[in-house]
Design goal:
The complex is a heterotrimer of chains A (276), B (359) and C (283). Chain B is α+β, with helices and mostly antiparallel strands and 359 residues long. In chain B, 23% of the residues lie in helices and 34% in strands. Chain B is elongated and about 80 Å long. Helices cover 80% and strands 0% of the residues of chain C. The chains are: A mainly alpha (276), B alpha+beta (359), C mainly alpha (283). Chains in contact: A-B, A-C, B-C.
Chain lengths: 276, 359, 283
Amino acid sequence: MNAAEDPRWLRALVAALALLVGLLLLALPLAAVFTEALRRGWEVALEAILEPDSLAAIRLTLLVAAISVPLNTVGGLAAAWCIAKHDFPGRRLLVVLVELPFSVSPVISGLVFVLIFGLQGWLGPWLQARHIQVIFALPALVLATLFVTFPFVARTVLPLMQEQGRAEEEAAATLGADGWQIFRRVTLPNIRWALLAGVLLCNARAMGEFGAVSVVSGHIRGQTNTMPLHVEILYNEYQFAGAFAVAALLALLGLVTLAAKSVLERWSGRAVGEAG
Amino acid sequence: MSVIVEGLARRFGTTAALDGVSLAVREGEFVALLGPSGSGKTTLLRVLAGLEPQEEGRVEIAGQEMAGVPARERGIGVVFQNYALFRHMNVFDNIAFGLSVLPRARRPRRAEMAERVRELLRLTQIPELERRWPDQLSGGERQRVALARALAIHPKLLLLDEPFGALDALVRREVRRWLRGLHDRLGITTLLVTHDQEEAMELADRVAVMERGRIAQFDTPAALLAGPTTPFVAGFVGEAARLEGRVAGGVLRFVQPGLPPLAVALPDGPASAFLHPRDVVAHPAPEGPLIRLARATAEGTARLVVELADGATLDAVAEPQGEWPQRQAACRLEITGAQVFAANGARGAAAPLRLAEVR
Amino acid sequence: MSASLALPHRARRLRAIPGFGLAFGIALFWLSAIVLVPLLALLLRPFELGLVGLWASLTEPRVLAALRLSFGAALLAAALALPLGLLLAWAVVRLRFPGRALLDAAIDLPFALPTAVAGVALTALLSPNGWVGAPLAALFGWRIAFTPAGIVVALLFVALPFIARTVEPVLRDLGREAEEAAATLGATRFQTLRRVVLPALAPALLTGFGLGFARAVGEYGSVIFIAGNMPMISEIAPLLITIRLEQFDYAGAAAIGLAMLLLAFAVLLALNLAQRALRRGWA
């Protein structure tokens, strides 16, 4: 036996405890979602998902993600490229600011947009006079989602970009490439798997976000309800089968994202960041 | 193309990486920047390439002022320290990169580009590597790809940053000769950064020895060895040992016992002497410094490490045609010459005293 | 001379890698539009109440109770997650057992599961007729769902992966050499763990604690289903913000938000200082 090795029984005990924690705290909730969803059979669950309000929620969720994820991908890539490949005063401040949304409560992330665009918000009266609907409509859902998911792309690609250094970009510059050529032909191909992972994580959060979206949505069925909000409405109306069916769909999205992330990690040979 | 550098300075925080560097490189010349790490040689190279801003001073390449000209417009070929090959492009695409990013009007057609790349592959003697990826190449192959990539843009100036650093000793020597041959054929003005003096001495027409952000001496390799102008150069170039002593009345006496005094034309006072191993000849003697190590050389003579009375060691050679020296044997040291610097920086070549002159 | 005087200004514009201007412009515009300007609203709007009104609105018993609950439950959950997260990380890094890979993957679940899903799932499990809630009620008479205890469990679920995933790489890098060295020097296993392993993990544990706490204190989706949401008892601060908003009390909502943000930063700053002190303690 190794000098720094614990006795066999102790190792077995630690492993058993860890498995117990994993089972109780991590696996059981997941199992509960699927069990509850299928409690009354496949047909009921499927029916709940195919019901018009649910379909509207799915469509809205996809739409919000389709708008926010590309925008935040561009913004996050720009920020990460500045931080990793250039020197400028305030670089470390930019790193802090990029991560800032992670330490802000989702409810506050929604609140700030109500403070600006809401009926009593800074721009509320101006918008109302022109019949422009921001709060309780798609624009606010997108804005709140953008706020919450802003850090994902930058945070996932930044460590890799920093690790790869600047030598290849400098070499490209001495060979006559301009900024866009360097970014597109040197930087981007080098981070493509991490970028894909970042986009997936960003997308998972965009589709699954609850708190921020809940504050700005107004919960209008069939119109401003995203999938997570629809889960809440169904749940509060005691339509448990429907609530858990939609929840199971969201859980599947999370599981697929997790699986894709671990595949990408294997491809790029390293960890590609954590969701927050 | 000629390169003129005047009063160049670059600071990182409070430390000066370049502290007033001036240098004039002639067209077609091969110049080595030689110095220990942190002496500013890489920073100088990066300023020339446009990768590092110059804070003070002037850089002129081929008669053109370089301040404010970005790297991509300088047309300077750079071979980076670890080659910085584009890891997601194969060898062909790496070499073609500089051509493919040209503005559309000046960009060669696909067939011309391929022809140019193949020509460079032949020139660097790696035509078989065309479709390989950087992580499938050996150090020497990567270096050739990096060189071919830099040459693709028809550079007027070639900058090499420690290009042999990643190679093992055997390959290094061979690649060095090949590179010098290539330079002689192409005639591109070349600056090489290295900390290896053997490399600098063998490759370069002239060597600029750098010390703490300044150029200590800029001269041909032979002149550097024969007449170092500062103690730093004397100590850094060659394998000279530094010994302290004192000059009085034109005679240098060493602090260490057991060494003969030397004649030198320097004012009285403390002085440092730099002795090459070949300047220190050991003769068998009944007593004196002890021979600690003896190593055979290809020339057939023995290189020795002798221990002086105070425990310090000194590199020496055995007397020619003498018997093979024994370890632990005593010897008498004869000093045939040395470079001596007085405390005020004055320099003199020392020579053995004739016996009559002692006392 | 004049040429060299004009130089520094031009030199500053020269960048090794081109393309900074555009990228920086995009990043800064995006960050300002999406994050900074909205947060500015949070910073300014509470003061519409005036300083006195702001103080009065924040010291309302219901607000104080909500803040106390949010921060107390988040700190408690992060503290409970410390040993559990360490246990998970240790098992995944140091031990080989069937199911290890699955456990490793499961640690990321709370990251990936949308919060509302976690919320309804935990509620279903812990409610008096749920898989876990029913036996607990029958055996011990415990009620977890719809009480502050339920909030702590939900936040524990949320905070756990932060600690496990922060400690894991440090534990991996630590290797066994240090422990083996301690053993050859005559330390008992317990002494080795306490004096060699734990100090090496302490900074990562603190970092993980901070991340887990920061996430837990603002958590909404996984809490509101299980909390019961009784004013003064099980009403968390984020929920109170939404209630204030529904009453069109924007300034009051912003005041709670700002207070939460400042308090959270104060806690994180304290953790940061503790970490620095820890590091200095070794040097």
